[in-house]
Amino acid sequence: MTVMVLSGNSAQAHAVRLARVQVVSAYPITPQTSIVEKIADLVATGALKAEYVQVESEHSALQVVVSASGMGARTYTATSSHGLLLMHELVHWASGARDPIVMGVVNRAVGPPWNIGADHTDSMSQRDTGWIQFYAESNQEVIDTVLMAFRLAEHPDVRLPVMVMEDAFYLSHTLEPVDVPDQAVVDGFLPPREAHATLHPGTSARLGSFTGPDRYVDFRFEVAKAMERVPATLRLVEEEYKKATGRSHGGAVPTYRVDDADAVLITMGTSTTTARTVVDDLRAQGKKVGLAKLRLFRPFPNEEIRALGAMVDRIGVADRSYTFGPMGAAGTEVSAALYPSSHHPAVTGFYAGIGGRDVTPHVVRRMYESLLSGAVPEVHWEDIEEEVSVDG
Amino acid sequence: MAKLTLPAQELMFSGHSACPGCGAALAMRLLLKGLGPRTVVSVPACCWTVIATPYPTTALGVAMMDNPIEATGASISGIRAALDAMGEKDVTVVGFAGDGGTADIGIQALSGMLERRTNALYVMYDNEAYMNTGVQRSGETPLGAWTTTTPVEGHEHGKIEAKKDMMAIVLAHHPVYAATLNPSFPEDFERKVEKAKAMSGPRFFDIFAPCSTGWRFDAQKTIAIGRLATDTGVFPLYEVENGRYHVTRKVGSLKPVEEYLHAQGRFRHLTPANIAAVGAQVRDGWEKLLTFESESLVAPTPSAAPTAPPATRA
After folding, report:
1. ipTM of the prediction
2. What local confidence, expressed as pLDDT, does residue B299 receive?
3. Which residue from B64, B74, B115 is facing A63, i.e. has the nearest CB?
4. Cis peptide leading into A361, omega within 30 of 0?
5. Which of A24, A49, A71 should be substituted to probe chain B, the one whose Cβ sees the most B Cβ atoms within 10 Å?
6. Does the pTM exceed 0.80?
7. Torsion angle of alpha carbons B61, B65, B66, B69, nearest 10°?
8. Do the Cβ atoms of A204 and B10 come closer than 8 Å?
9. Fewer CB under 10 Å: which end of chain A, C or N?
10. CB of A210 less than 8 A from some CB of B
């Protein structure tokens, strides 16, 4: 193990190196670019022995890794925002084809107006594509999650692609000390990819094909069953990773000081770190508040959320995207997950941090105060001066 | 009588679901005869998605991968990259796309594949419209042709624009080899396939693929229509290698273009003036091609010849 001072983007690139990825393809977009630049350096120096296919669009980038993965190679790509949206067709294709691709997504706002700040709209708009989705809080979590992502994606019980998200700039361009595991340790944890449903030259076989209603649903059902096996497989993968490196990131929904809490806030990504300090401050004042981090968003961790819901009466969900639903994307999912439960905590959806606006301790404290007072509407835009209209 | 020299192997099976007289089916059959079993074919949404038959069957004796319509160029780059990464060196990688998937929606991915010099053969089988969706106009639909979206009704008289010159667009990328092929001339066809197979780097075929359904001719006339296309100068057979043009079927004097046009229902509405316009365009194209050939013998396309292409990569 070596401690390196890495940005989130460098952490992604080092994970790609350690995973011995065979084919990388990507197209530059802010704030993802330093991932592909770093990978280019790693390939140029021979630190990563991969085919690095430089393409003319994100759509082609994902097609390159889809086809390479279909031939049996371990593959990686990375993108952000509009790049991910341009990939959308192939995002669906990758999961339908059961390609265990890992993709780094540096979450960025979608235009117009153009904005390069942190915002989860890009990956949230891909939540129904059959990819496993992780949202990272720190650069350590980035490198560890990318390595675990390959193991999970290629696991015989899963065989689905994985996105590993990091917040633009807060992680992508911020340096943190990161424990980088040794190559031998990663080799022990992540053996070479085992070929399954791949195409072999010299055989009469077809990968993709077409079907009528008589068979199509069976393929979808297989994807659904694989997705259902993710939580159990993730627990195994995290255990193995912990054995190899000594680190774990607490499963799908790690919690903080939720015992006896009157109100729990659910966060994703970097706002979690801020919220943790606010929880400590409020606890010091005698207020019973807790925090849960939605680290895994797809498949949605229903069981963990139901367990949390059984413990508290008030839950707030902070979404860093606006998705035109009854609540934000995470708020809606949390509410839906809790609905079949016998205990129904009040759920409040907050929008915070849209387009890279800082989620400050002040903003988080207001969310907790709202939850504790019980006097909040079903959804609430945080840190917005409502009297100031954007067009006037 | 000349002895046929076509390879005996068949890597396309009967039981495929092409229409009778399908030029695209002939194109695949002849292509695979020459390329052999160590071939991987990437096929976008097009007639061949269906011709290859549904899961769990296949009409091909080689490995086939499906890809979305606009992404064939990228798909073959990915296949080649994986084969290179896994150390498989003796495989021919082929993209086999229709004209819409190549010249319209797929032109970006094709350009990218050519520019990054992917070691693969990109085939455009050219039936001159979106045939799988039911005969809609593409960039490759020729001047005057009827399609369901270039109707012959009221004041409309078929497509008013000329066919996009894909060979010129491809040649601007300086591939190692580009050629036009026509299943009606199978020996010329196989010679080009063998030549392309032996090369490394980006290669391109424009294969003429008459469509009896969309062009409105009797299904048993496919070969005759194909011969007419070349002998009237509508679809000349040539190849370009290292910047040098070579017309592989020299037609002494072109047959009148009417013979080709009158054989197909899609041109039935053309007036003598329309036909004269098509004829002038065809003659102009043919003469330009002959000029390219004679000039390139003396001076090959500058950017293609003097500097060696960069090392082939995926």
Report:
1. 0.96
2. 79
3. B74
4. no
5. A71
6. yes
7. -110
8. no
9. C
10. yes
CB-based contact, B277 to chain A, within 8 Å: no
pLDDT band at A389 (very low <50, low <70, confident <90, very high): very low
- B23 within 8 A of B211, measured Cβ to Cβ: yes
Q: What is the DSSP string of A317-372?
A: EEESS--SSSS-HHHHHHHHHHTTSSS--EEEEEE-SGGG----HHHHHHHHHHHH
pLDDT of residue B70: 98
Express each pLDDT in A42-73 by its tens digit. 999 999 999 999 999 999 999 999 999 999 99
Amino acid at A184: A
The yes or no reply on domain A255-381 and CATH 3.40.50.920 is yes
Tokens of A371: 């939850």
B58, amino acid identity: T
Phi first, then psi: give them for residue B294, nearest 5 degrees.
Answer: -70, -40
**In whole angstroms, what is the distance from residue A141 CA to residue B16 CA?**
51
Low-confidence ranges of chain B (pLDDT < 50): 303-309
Class of domain A2-192+213-245: alpha beta
Say whether B75 and A215 touch across the interface (CB within 8 A). no
Q: What is the mean pLDDT of chain A?
A: 95
Non-local CB neighbours of A285 within 8 Å, separated by 6+ positions: none
User: Where do the DSSP E strands lie in B236-305?
Assistant: 238-241, 244-247
Beta-carbon contacts of residue B68 (< 8 Å; ≥ 6 apart): A63, A89, A90, A93, B44, B45
Per the structure block, which two tokens stand in for A119? Answer: 């915002």
Residue B54 with chain A: CB contacts under 8 Å: 209-212, 215
For residues A324 and A125, what is the distance between their CA atoms, to the nearest angstrom? Answer: 11
Q: Where are the domains of chain A?
A: 2-192+213-245, 255-381
Domains of chain B: residue spans and CATH: 23-298 (3.40.50.970)
What pLDDT band is residue A379 in, cutting at 50, 70 and 90?
Answer: confident
Assign B122 to helix, strand or coil.
strand
- Record: contact B58-A206, CB cut-off 8 A: yes
Q: Give the pLDDT score at A391.
A: 44
Specify the 3-state DSSP secondary structure of B77: helix
Cα–Cα distance, A259 to A53 (Å, whole number):
50
